[in-house]
Amino acid sequence: MKTLVLTAHPNLEKSRINRAWFDALAEADSVTTRDLTAVGGAGMAFDLETEQALLLAHDRIVFQFPFYWYSAPPVMKAWMDQVLSYGFAYGPGGDKLKGREFLVLVSTGGPADSYHAGGYNNFSMDELLKPFQQTALLTGMTYLRPFVAHGMAVATVEQIDASVPEMLAHLTDPELDPKVKQARLLKALAEDPTKAAAVS
Amino acid sequence: MKTLVLTAHPNLEKSRINRAWFDALAEADSVTTRDLTAVGGAGMAFDLETEQALLLAHDRIVFQFPFYWYSAPPVMKAWMDQVLSYGFAYGPGGDKLKGREFLVLVSTGGPADSYHAGGYNNFSMDELLKPFQQTALLTGMTYLRPFVAHGMAVATVEQIDASVPEMLAHLTDPELDPKVKQARLLKALAEDPTKAAAVS
């Protein structure tokens, strides 16, 4: 499986967590990293042929970004609005992403407990990421469970270091595809009549 | 009440619905319109002092944009990430938007029935707009019910024309603040014991 990581950070050089992730991913097997801020330049302009060819050459598409105002930095959206074009990602003949996988890799400044009803960010990450989930759904991609690192505004070097192997393990988890996990659980159930009886 | 309309459209001149709204708003009383694409230029760069002074001079802030990939065009996010700064919109002393009102004015290509569970866009506009709702909540603004025009990909000139007075009526509706509407309903209830009994 080949993974394409599209990184949208306005200042990747100065970033702590996203830089650490980017560097680790750049060294990982079967992973292509792409710094969209560098590629797009000041005008955030992308070459459609290049970007679309890259998508076609990979099975799992990862959007990596810091969570600013509950979404991605503008360069991610510039890339989406330009590259996910009519006839490629949607509309007649626009099935080129169908069957691929899509995953959000995101860092937040605020702590995990703030992303809940009753927390100061009110909504869960699943709720706030729905625009990305629906982008995957409309283009026929399988939406995989995101990897989220919370509390990065006050994270220690140790916490950032620890997030790297966790992130890599998540991105290569064979059960990220919900159908794969469900199939294993159903198979286990079928093989053990005691358990099957317990849920019937 | 003074209203500031921040318009984020990559090509306002060629737009049908957003141009019609923008032109009507530009002529409305107590409304300031601002074409963010023109102001930000190719680099989408905003002058903080100018933008923040404009916010402070208005009571109701409107984000106007076409719904691309379930969010706003990149220039809207560029404006947010630059202008809603630490110490102004959040953080210590960052209470400058507190008490103001916030409203999303948005057009979608797809029809209304697609923005439902079971529709091809799966989620409701309220769900997909949560990143904007939470931006309003964190900055202490009252989130007002959005104005959404669906089906604009196939809208007739008549439908576009008809949306203009509807949009203007929505933006000046005195009961857009949910507390105002609730207070009126509770007052009506208190004045009519029959109705009060019916809900008790």
What labels would you give this structure?
42% helix; homodimer; 200 residues; Rossmann fold; alpha/beta; six-stranded parallel beta sheet
Task: Please provide a brief summary of the model.
2 copies of one chain form a homodimer. By secondary structure, the first copy, chain A, is of the alpha/beta class.
What is the percent of helical residues of chain A?
40-55%
Which two protein chains have the largest interface (Cβ within 8 Å of the partner's Cβ), and how many residues from each? A-B, 30 and 30 residues
Instruction: Measure the end-to-end span of chain A.
Output: 37 Å
Instruction: Please give the oligomerization state of what you see.
Output: homodimer
Give the total of domains of chain A: 1
Low-confidence stretches of chain A: none
Named at the architecture level, the CATH assignment of chain A is 3-Layer(aba) Sandwich
Binned strand content of chain A: 5-15%
Structure description:
- 2 copies of one chain form a homodimer.
- Chain A is α/β, with parallel strands linked by helices and 200 residues long.
- Chain A has one domain: Rossmann fold (3-Layer(aba) Sandwich), CATH 3.40.50.
- The first copy, chain A, is built from 9 helices and 6 strands, in the order βαβααβαβααββααα.
- In chain A, strands 1, 2, 3, 4, 5 and 6 form a 6-stranded parallel beta sheet that branches.
- In chain A, strand 3, helix 4 and strand 4 form a beta-alpha-beta unit.
- The first copy, chain A, is globular and about 60 Å long.
- The relative contact order of chain A is 0.14.
- At the A-B interface, helix 4 and helix 6 of A face helix 4 and helix 6 of B.
